[in-house]
Design brief:
The complex is a heterodimer of chains A (453) and B (137). Chain A contains 18 helices and 11 strands. Chain A is of the alpha/beta class. In chain A, the strands form 4 sheets. Chain A has a 4-stranded parallel beta sheet with strand order 6-5-8-9, sandwiched between helices. In chain A, helix 15 crosses helix 16. Chain A starts with 5 loop residues before the first strand and ends in an 11-residue tail after the last helix. Chain B is α+β, with helices and mostly antiparallel strands and 137 residues long. Chain B has a 5-stranded antiparallel beta sheet with strand order 1-2-3-5-4, covered by helices on one side. Chain B starts with a strand and ends with a strand. Classes of the chains: A alpha/beta (453), B alpha+beta (137). The interface between A and B is medium-sized, with 22 and 24 residues.
């Protein structure tokens, strides 16, 4: 139904329910001793991946070697990739090593950051009736708004993100050198799962230009290993390298978009819980006069992304250092800002619009309001009897989520351990029936015998 | 479907609790997002009124298949001239309430703008009851 980049790897899953408890959209349930993801609720934010102790959440990236089938493979790097490497490994060396690994071209996605900023500013000028405008940058946030805040979908700017703009640029630039599209393979090095979902199932577009997605952790290991193999004295081939402006480097960090937007009042909010708190207020019209919102699912934005290999603050600091150096070069007039992209800027902005974001609410109990009301009344009645301690033993994250599962036919009331005790006491359920209910959720090997202490 | 909430005088921290809860309910019922917005804005205004000017009160909400009915009742000072209070910018708010960003005299007019039916009854020294209805379709 919906494409997801996150999948439970069943054999590895130990059914510990940690993922179920942290999922911000309550998309995870436990059944038969294994976690499962409810596809219509998942936004690919990756909170589950972060807490899984068994590495049982798999990220569906593409085969690393598949770029080799294209004569003109392009590695599209997010700026945070450079932030992963220790200080003694320069940006130039990372570029050169990627070419040693076999990529024909290397490009940083944020080279399109200023075009993206211009496209947003233009959209803002023409759509003052849709304030506050919400950035389209973070795909997990766009999906969160679609499923949980349907009244705000029209505030999301339907604008291509730097990844798509840089992909368009790469195709145009290579075409100008006479290279046909079929020889070009665009490979995005992703720092998170949501970006994979955005490539495989874009919102507001039929198909993405990206030919493959590579896990940033994996590429980091390959690059680092290659650098060590080649040693300090290796003569790297001279290579063409883009220079990013300070603004572009900082754009993926928190406040990166906000600091260069033209809005009078704006907020930059990172961390999905913080974003949800804010959107709840915004939906109630409790926030006045706000014109632009930069919302990011991860704490410290992309520096804290799922597949970031290093600590988010270390990564962020390295990016600031790089941006400071770039700013110094800009001040000294050594580096004209984003000159290469300038030739294509108008073309890219012309083609930056996508279709309006559509709601796909997860919250609806029934399309028919009378039936939905009936279900809601049943949920309320059930809640009065449920313990309201959100213990999760039923395999749902909260008593309320459990009650909702029961009325929609996805769970049996007997999964509640408190209710079972009540039934057993009243002689309406045998112990062995109770036990088999417990096993149906958690599997049958949780307790092996009496415990001696 | 019936829900009830209590609002406490001066408790601005919890202003919006009732409207947030009603919002969640309406989302589950698949009510049009723009209609939900009107309901939430009107109810939030009424909640703030009860908190700021009227010693708190009760919010009772009834939802059926085609409309929502909200009654916010307080035992506050009452409104001497309802017609005057319905005018934009008219306010009797104390300065300390205005300092908090409330009491600009937009409350009742904003409620009226967002609901399909509004009825305000008030008796000075006894209290005020605001009844609002919004149709779903």
């Amino acid at each position: 139904m919906f494409y997801h980049a996150l999948q439970i790897d069943d054999p590895r899953c130990i059914g510990c329910s940690r993922c179920m408890k942290v999922c911000p959209t309550e998309a995870i349930r436990i059944h038969g001793g294994k976690a499962s993801i409810q596809e219509h609720r998942c936004i690919d934010c990756g909170k589950c991946y972060e807490v899984c102790p068994a590495q049982a959440i798999a990220i569906k990236d593409d085969d690393f070697e598949s770029f080799r089938q294209y004569p003109h493979s392009v590695a599209l790097l997010p700026a945070v990739f450079m932030g992963q490497f220790p200080d003694d490994i320069s940006v130039s060396r990372v570029y050169a090593t990627l070419q040693e690994l076999g990529f024909a071209h290397v490009m940083e996605v944020e080279s399109a950051a200023m075009v993206y900023a211009d496209a947003k500013n233009r959209y803002a000028r023409e759509n003052q009736d849709k304030l506050p405008l919400i950035s389209s940058f973070c795909p997990a946030i766009v999906r969160l708004i679609q499923i949980k805040y349907p009244s705000l979908v029209e505030n999301v700017m339907p604008i291509k993100v730097p990844l798509d703009l840089s992909a368009m640029y790469a195709i145009e630039e290579l075409a100008s050198r006479g290279i046909p599209r079929e020889e070009i393979g665009l490979f995005y090095i992703t720092p998170c799962a949501a970006k994979i979902a955005a490539v495989k199932a874009p919102v507001g577009e039929e198909k993405s230009l990206i030919d493959g997605v590579i896990n940033m952790n994996l590429l980091y290991n390959r690059v680092y290993k290659k650098i060590k193999e080649l040693g300090k004295n290796h003569q790297y081939k001279p290579q063409h390298r883009q220079r990013l402006s300070a603004d572009a480097i900082l754009s993926t960090l928190t406040n990166g978009e906000r600091r260069i937007c033209t809005a009078k009042r704006s907020y930059a909010i990172d961390g999905i819980e913080n974003v949800m708190d804010f959107l709840d207020k915004l939906e109630n019209d409790e926030v006045e006069g706000v014109e632009f919102l930069e919302l990011r699912a991860c704490d410290q934005s992309c520096a804290g992304a799922l597949l970031s290999c290093d600590n988010r603050f270390l990564c962020g600091e390295r990016m600031y250092t790089r941006a400071r150096k770039a700013a110094e070069r800009e001040r000294n007039g050594e580096m004209p800002r984003d000159r290469e992209m300038d030739r294509y800027k108008d073309y890219l902005i012309e083609h930056s619009l996508v279709d309006e974001v559509q709601p796909r609410s997860m919250m609806v109990l029934d399309a028919d309001i009378s039936k939905a009301l009936e279900k809601m009344e049943r949920i309320e009645r059930m809640k009065e009897h449920l313990p309201q301690i959100d213990c999760g033993v039923c395999g749902a994250p909260t008593c309320e989520a459990f009650a909702t599962d029961v009325v929609s036919g996805q769970a049996n009331l007997h999964r509640c351990v408190f209710y079972r005790l009540h039934l057993e006491q009243a002689g309406k359920m045998t112990l062995s029936e109770g036990r088999s209910n417990m096993y149906s959720v958690w599997g049958d090997d949780r307790i092996s015998g009496e415990i001696e202490i | 479907m019936h829900q009830e909430y209590t609002v406490v005088e001066g408790d601005f921290v919890n202003a919006g609790k009732a409207s947030s809860s009603v919002k969640k309910t309406l989302k589950q019922l698949n009510v049009n997002p723009q209609v939900i917005k009107r309901v939430v804005v009107a109810l939030y205004e009424a909640e703030v009124n009860a908190i700021a000017h009227a010693y708190g009160g009760t919010v009772s909400v009834d939802i059926d298949a085609d409309k929502i009915r909200m009654v916010v009742a307080d035992s506050g000072p009452g409104i001497p001239d309802i017609a005057l209070a319905m005018q934009e910018g008219y306010s009797t708010a104390r300065p300390e309430v205005r300092d908090m960003g409330f009491g600009a005299g937009m409350g009742l007019p904003n409620m009226e703008k967002n609901v399909d039916r509004l009825n305000v009854t008030s008796e000075v020294g006894v209290g005020t009851t605001v009844e609002m209805e919004v149709n779903f379709a």
